[in-house]
Amino acid sequence: MSTIQITHLTFAYPGQDNLFNNQNLTFDSNWKLGLTGRNGRGKTTLLNLIRGKLSGQGTITMPLTPLYFPQPVTDPTQDAWAVATEASTAELWEIQRELSLMHTSDDLLYRPYESLSGGEQTKVLLAATFASHTGFPLLDEPTNHLDITGRDQIAEYLHHAQQGFIVISHDRHFLDAATDHTLTIEKQQLVLTQGNYSAYEQAKQLKDQSEYAEQAKLRHDIGRLKQTAANKRQWSQSREGDKYGNPHQKGSGAVYDTGFIGARSARVMQKAKNLEHRMDKAITDKESLLQNVEFIDPLKMNYQPDHHETLLWVRNIQLSYNGQPLFTKPVSFELNRGDRLALIGPNGSGKSSLIAAILGRFKGAVTGEIQLTETARRSLVRQHYPDNLGTLTEFAQKRGLSYQDLLNNLKKLGIPRDDFKTPIQHLSAGQQKKVELAASLATPTSLYLWDEPLNYLDVFNQEQLTTVIQDVQPTMLVTEHDRDFIQAISTKIVTL
């Protein structure tokens, strides 16, 4: 066991605010550490600092060789075994051993890497990472492209791994199953919690409740100080006026000791100033009180229910490519107004293909019957959206969207205002996904068809989506691998 130590770490990209500010952290290399935090807070940046790809102020003591996942693949046309051995210092038999521990056949090693599914590629590179037991794995979102079964397999594998690691993921169920410590980036701070993500979340809720209570007390105290200072100031000003009498009363004049009144009003004025100083100090002392409380603004969903009771019928549908059926048996279901129907199943089971068939865009053969109510307006979230181009203004005009609604949802999803003028194709992959999602939310519609909407979204964005769907209760057909999300929003489940 070794100790990894971060001392007085400060880091910012040129021209931007600090991601980390004078942070100190010590953890053991045998810990199974989940790294979480909102998008843009610096999770991947922290991994790159630990592995020496970036440098900031302060020091990072890393006694082990960092092993970063996903490794770059120079030639994806090679067989997977060649890619794996190139990405690792281990022998092929050691990589095969790790795949066996993932309950995955090593047959896939003898297929071209580029022919493997995203989940299979993930398992090959993870096996290459862990096959050597001498380094310290840094895993950057290994749950991408994994279906529910794959996530369970990898979570179990990591839970029983002989070595520690750091893993970034936005899947709470995965983190709970795979990790024993949680490191969260909260507004320039690194917060370490003993236990998995649920343990962190419980501790965070208790801390936030305490800070909210302190903030309420602070507001009460500041209000009282402000009122007292205002009252004293008003009294001293009125006493000062008494020295000169009432200018509106004929023949009026001061007939009492103006020196005494002036001195007393000066003393009261000084008290008022002292109260203002006390108030300012109280505000300054408490400015950072809620700095780690995450404010999650509710999203707006432009749902407009259709008058039809049933919007979609799917009866005995079978899809096939080149005579090969996708489903083991024909699929049937109906989607009524207010239903949230989840299509679930492993990678390659045909979920996206079924949505394409419903929209009349499937390129293979279709048998059976699909009836989609023609008057039902539809709003999509797709896995790929190469046609989202240009500025947000142009995009909103092309799609017939409210520009203000689009911007409001993008801001609530965490895209900085500075990026609103950036052409969509130049945004990061995560930001492009948020544009696709915000456009769907802003579209006046009676039916949502969402294909893996949680890709690239952090836990807070996932909570925003869950909340707005539960509040609005729209009619929706959705595919997703995150079981917590499916359980939270769905009223029907169809397994492929």
Your description of this structure?
Residues 228-238 have a biased composition (Polar residues). It comes from Secundilactobacillus pentosiphilus. InterPro entries: AAA+_ATPase, ABC_transporter-like_ATP-bd, ABC_transporter-like_CS, ABCF_ATPase, P-loop_NTPase. GO terms for molecular function: ATP binding; ATP hydrolysis activity. Pfam families: ABC_tran. The structure is a single chain. The chain is of the alpha/beta class and 496 residues long. The protein has three domains: 3-203, P-loop containing nucleotide triphosphate hydrolases (Rossmann fold, 3-Layer(aba) Sandwich), CATH 3.40.50; 205-242 and 257-291; 310-495, 3-Layer(aba) Sandwich (Rossmann fold), CATH 3.40.50.300. It is 39% helix and 21% strand. The chain has 14 helices and 18 strands. It has helices at residues 43-50, 80-86, 92-101, 118-131, 148-159, 172-178, 197-242, 258-286, 351-358, 392-399, 403-412, 429-442, 459-472, 483-489; strands at 3-11, 20-28, 32-37, 57-61, 65-69, 135-140, 165-168, 181-186, 189-194, 310-321, 324-325, 331-336, 340-344, 365-372, 378-381, 447-451, 476-479, 492-495. The strands form four sheets. A six-stranded mixed sheet has the order 5-6-7-3-8-9, with helices on both faces. A five-stranded parallel sheet has the order 15-16-17-13-18, with helices on both faces. Helix 5 (148-159) packs parallel to helix 6. It is globular, with a radius of gyration of 30 Å. The mean pLDDT is 87.
